[in-house]
Amino acid sequence: MASRKSTFKVGSEEIQGEDSYVVFHQMSFGMVLEAMKKGEGKTKPDEEKDFTERLLKDAVVEWNWVDDNGDLLPLPSKGLVIESLLTNEIMWLVEQITGKAQAKNSS
């Protein structure tokens, strides 16, 4: 019987170091299109932040990411404050969610 694969796991060594990973929930095509529009600079900064928070809450299912002290970061859906992430971490997460990284790697 067919089974829809709704999650995928990605190693994040280049962002969080050895053995780090993130498990993502696959996003709908509509959500990805909305993310791409936001990335084109057609929104205000507050709208961008709100959308990014929603995107991370919906997409990040599991991770083993830590802060500068080595303490496990809470999941976005469990109280992570988006401002506590580094810019490159947010950019990497959004790329994974929207599939831009996969598209770059396949070209």
Question: What does the model show?
Answer:
It is built from five helices and three strands. The protein is globular, with a radius of gyration of 14 Å. The longest helix has 15 residues. The chain has a three-stranded antiparallel β-sheet with strand order 1-2-3. The chain has one domain. With 107 residues, the protein is α+β, with helices and mostly antiparallel strands.
Compact overview of the structure:
Helices cover 46% and strands 13% of the residues.
Structural category: alpha+beta
Indicate the proportion of strand residues.
5-15%
The overall pLDDT, averaged over residues, is 84
Q: Describe the main β-sheet briefly.
A: 3 strands, antiparallel
Question: Key features?
Answer:
107 residues; alpha+beta; three-stranded antiparallel sheet; 5 helices; 46% helix
